[in-house]
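Review form for a predicted model. The reviewer records the input and the model, then writes brief findings.
Reviewer: anonymous (R2)
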Amino acid sequence: MRSETSEINSEIQRLLKQFRLPDIRDRYDDEVKVAVENNIGHREFLYKILKVEEQGKMDRLRIRNIKNAHFDSQKTIEEFDFNFPTNINKTEVIDLLTLSFMDKKENIVFIGPPGLGKSHLSTSIGMKACEKGKSVLFVNAIDLMDELYDAISLGALKQKFIKLAKIDLLIIDDMNYLKMDKEKESIFFQLIRQRYEKSSLIITTNLPFNKWDEIFTSELAATAVLDRLLHHSHVISITGDSHRVNRHFKEA
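Model under review:
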């Protein structure tokens, strides 16, 4: 009888490996023991071990998504000091962490002076999206535009756009140091148009919208981009003194 049980257990392990169920495979013996000790029925036992596998897959997906997002650093909303900025709508920021804006294909723009946590907040939302199984890409605006511009000479711009279209949440950081020519302007407009009402975008910037013509070649071009970007958008304005500067003076 013991030999037969051992053979069955070996077959179960083989099948779990074959069907790529690593979490059930790792936890199977422990879960069987718990089921026997607590007189758990077959249906409940099946449910419990399937939940073990589901949680394991979600954990691995989260880790993979965070790695692929290329965050500068991993920041959470719990680490953000809402008492530091002079003005910020905390309620709206917390609501954005539900990711309902992604379901509605809406955008977010964090706008305000340097050093107030715009990148931190966008990363926090991106991290939450990764936890929910969404694909995220965090990229500096200049780096993104240089990469897309270089793709033209390589004949790879279309492929780049196809790849970006598959990203559930694109975060473009520091949309204020750019100075575009006509060609880069056209590329950026294509990117915004591609995601318009299809997938979500987060942008951080120091520049108020009435100065976006400093980024683009004209006020007309800036208006064309802003028209699509802001149509379905949450604009979070943050004011105050730079946290980094204040910390420097305190340490001096």
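Findings: Residues 248-252 have pLDDT under 50 and may be disordered.
Further findings: The first strand starts at residue 107 and ends at 111.
Recommendation: see findings above.
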